[in-house]
């Protein structure tokens, strides 16, 4: 059976795509999440296994966080398993500040800020949780190489604080 | 020869750590106010019993000490500036329960010196308004007067563009835009009250057009001097008060905001979100007239270099 074509809907400043891929659904969120991003409307369209790609969430304010929490709660109430993929830095910031913003979801991967010690360039690097589980548990961040100068990039935040949302 | 007109207001510094005490003495020495220094609660109590300092500077351990708290509460009308370096985030909630707390400085040197000097001078001179006090002389300040609620997005996008154009990365831009969005939302929807004190805008839909007339207009100002990126939002209602501010900040205690409101138009965590996103949050209050909130983002140091678990704040009253 072939997967159905992805559907996209724009709510204010955010575009949400839903792609039914056989045994799971992929929801991709692109843009700025505020009070117009009523994600709970999506719940009835989704199955029991949902991957939410948050890599293109550039902004999320407190009302957007509330909409996000309502979405996660609704998914939990219908017994769905939610996996968060490519959590952008604004999403991680909110998940670290607001207790309920992580909900019962599993984090698959997330972006983290890195700074080159040599040329001061900044880069947001996507890190896979499963591949670094022990490091993250010890609040250690994997090293990165600067694409501009080849120098060493250092993690540009407190590991203990930035990784709170994984606890 | 003329004698300089020196301020006569005394400052009491009560800190246990000798090195910090000397550092603070030198920082406040620049005010040329007479400074009394003590290192125990008993000494502070004795000083407060006989003298009337204009400002008391204490460490957070003294405030959390039962007797120390009683001593300070007995002089609750005296501005109390608390230093909270090396504190655990969990201690913030307890600190915010202290009734008379208005000024908390948590950043390490050299931010501490700047923040403390400015805080003391604002109190001594009674001049509290404007982000310029936190920035170097002559800095260019952008100003936007919002005459329609829909301009919130435009203003935040302009700030975003300016921050990127100034050479800052996505993270500083994300911090700045979140702060501006939350503060403007607060000014547009939570600040306005009618003659009976009812918050008439709190349940208005938070997108779309709404013309703002008279005192409903909101002002956004921002500037950067390569030390701080300062974002200032002013409303002309002046409804925010100190106890409300402390309750809001308490939600961000330990960087873990709880109590997201589900039954109101706003989420009820806007100020806590701003506090958790900046390095220093300043509230300048003139009840019934205006509220000016200034959020400072330190752009000199990496978060790990600052290594503070909580952020500074100050609540000034006109």
What does this structure look like?
The complex is a heterodimer of chains A (about 170) and B (about 325). By secondary structure, chain A is α/β, with parallel strands linked by helices. Chain A has helices spanning about 60-75, 90-95, 135, 160; strands at about 5-10, 15-20, 25-35, 50-60, 80-85, 105, 110-115, 120-130, 145, 150-155. Chain A has two domains: about 1-105, STAS domain (Transcription Regulator spoIIAA, 2-Layer Sandwich); about 115-125 and about 130-165, no CATH class. Helices cover about 20% and strands about 40% of the residues of chain A. Chain A starts with 6 loop residues before the first strand and ends in a 5-residue tail after the last helix. The mean pLDDT of chain A is about 90. Chain B is of the alpha/beta class. Chain B folds into two domains: about 10-125, 3-Layer(aba) Sandwich (Rossmann fold); about 130-315, Heat Shock Protein 90. Helices cover about 35% and strands about 20% of the residues of chain B. Chain B has helices at about 20-30, 40-50, 60-65, 65-75, 90-95, 110-125, 150-165, 170-190, 240-250, 270-275, 305; strands spanning about 10-15, 35-40, 55-60, 80-85, 105, 140-145, 220-225, 230-235, 280-285, 290-300, 310-315. In chain B, strand 7 (about 220-225) and strand 8 (about 230-235) form a beta hairpin. Chain B starts with 10 loop residues before the first strand and ends with a strand. The interface of A and B includes residues 13, 100 and 161 of A.
């Amino acid at each position: 059976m072939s997967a159905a074509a992805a559907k996209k809907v724009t709510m204010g400043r955010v575009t949400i795509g839903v792609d039914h891929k056989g045994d799971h659904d992929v929801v991709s969120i692109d843009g700025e999440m505020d009070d117009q991003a009523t994600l709970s409307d999506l719940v009835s369209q989704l199955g029991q296994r949902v991957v939410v790609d948050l890599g293109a969430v550039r902004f999320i304010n407190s009302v957007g966080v509330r909409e996000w929490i309502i979405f996660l709660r609704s998914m939990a109430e219908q017994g769905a398993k939610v996996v968060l993929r490519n959590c952008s830095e604004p999403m991680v910031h909110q998940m670290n500040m607001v207790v309920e913003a992580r909900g019962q979801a599993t984090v698959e991967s997330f972006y983290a800020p890195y700074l080159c010690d040599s040329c001061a360039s900044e880069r947001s690097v996507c890190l896979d949780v499963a591949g670094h589980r022990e490091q993250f548990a010890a609040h250690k961040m994997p090293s990165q190489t600067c694409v501009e100068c080849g120098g060493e990039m250092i993690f540009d935040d407190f590991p203990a604080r930035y990784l709170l949302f994984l606890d | 020869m003329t004698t300089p007109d020196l301020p006569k207001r005394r400052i009491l510094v009560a800190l246990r750590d000798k090195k910090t005490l000397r550092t603070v003495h030198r920082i406040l020495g620049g005010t040329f106010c007479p400074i009394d220094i003590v290192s125990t609660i008993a000494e502070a109590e004795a000083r407060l019993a006989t003298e009337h300092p204009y400002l008391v500077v204490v460490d957070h351990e003294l405030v959390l000490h039962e007797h120390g708290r009683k001593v300070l509460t007995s002089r609750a009308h005296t501005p109390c500036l608390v230093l909270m370096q090396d504190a655990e985030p969990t201690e913030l909630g307890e600190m915010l329960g202290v009734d008379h707390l208005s000024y908390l400085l948590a950043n390490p040197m050299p931010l501490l010196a700047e923040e403390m000097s400015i805080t003391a001078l604002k109190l001594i001179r009674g001049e509290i308004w404007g982000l310029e006090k936190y920035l170097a002389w002559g800095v260019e300040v952008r100003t936007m007067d919002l005459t329609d609620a829909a301009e919130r997005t435009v203003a935040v996008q302009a700030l975003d563009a300016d921050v990127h154009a100034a050479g800052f990365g996505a993270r500083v831009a994300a911090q700045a835009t979140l702060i501006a969005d939350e503060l403007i939302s607060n000014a547009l929807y939570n600040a306005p009250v009618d003659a009976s004190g009812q918050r008439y805008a709190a349940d208005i839909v938070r997108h779309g057009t709404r013309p703002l007339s008279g005192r409903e207009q909101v002002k956004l100002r921002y500037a950067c001097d390569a030390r701080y990126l300062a974002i200032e939002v002013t409303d002309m209602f002046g409804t925010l008060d100190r106890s409300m501010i402390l309750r809001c900040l308490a939600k961000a205690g330990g960087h873990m905001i709880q109590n997201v409101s589900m039954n109101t138009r706003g989420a009820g965590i806007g100020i806590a979100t701003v506090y958790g996103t900046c390095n220093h949050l300043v509230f300048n209050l003139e009840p019934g007239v205006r509220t000016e909130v200034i959020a400072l983002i330190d752009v000199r140091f990496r978060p790990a270099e600052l290594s503070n678990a909580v952020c500074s704040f100050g609540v000034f009253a006109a």
